[in-house]
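Module 6 notes. Inverse folding takes a fixed backbone as the condition and produces residue identities as the prediction. Think of it as a translation problem where the source language is geometry and the target language is the twenty amino acids. Below is one complete input and output pair. Work through it position by position during the lab.
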């Protein structure tokens, strides 16, 4: 089941190319879990730092059966922020899926003994 994906731009202009990248990355996440209900990607420029320059933040909320996973990443490049946020989300999703499989396996093993 493919989930809904919302991409929100705050204080940024929408980008068709960036949207395409985001949707491809969200589709890739479905390989790791079939319990994804929805996803929301928010891109904004939260910082007004004079010394660090302009930073972009990519925040991703992934709604799962059970508990949601949320990650965010800041970078001077919006594309790098998106890439790194999705990499962190993929790691967390793999961990979550592995823990669920391990607990199901452990429960099944205890029932058999």
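Target side of the pair, the amino acids:
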């Amino acid at each position: 089941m493919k989930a809904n994906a919302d991409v929100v731009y705050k204080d940024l202009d929408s980008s068709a190319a960036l949207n395409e990248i985001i949707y491809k990355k969200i589709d890739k996440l479905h390989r790791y879990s079939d319990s994804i209900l929805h996803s929301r990607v928010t891109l904004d420029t939260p910082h007004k730092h004079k010394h660090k320059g302009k930073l972009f933040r990519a925040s991703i909320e992934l709604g799962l059966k059970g508990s949601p996973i949320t990650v965010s990443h800041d970078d001077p490049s919006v594309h790098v922020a998106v890439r790194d946020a999705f990499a962190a989300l993929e790691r967390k999703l793999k961990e979550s899926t592995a823990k669920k499989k391990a607990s199901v396996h452990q429960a099944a093993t205890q029932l058999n003994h």
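Reference fact for the lab report: The two ends are 35 Å apart (CA to CA).
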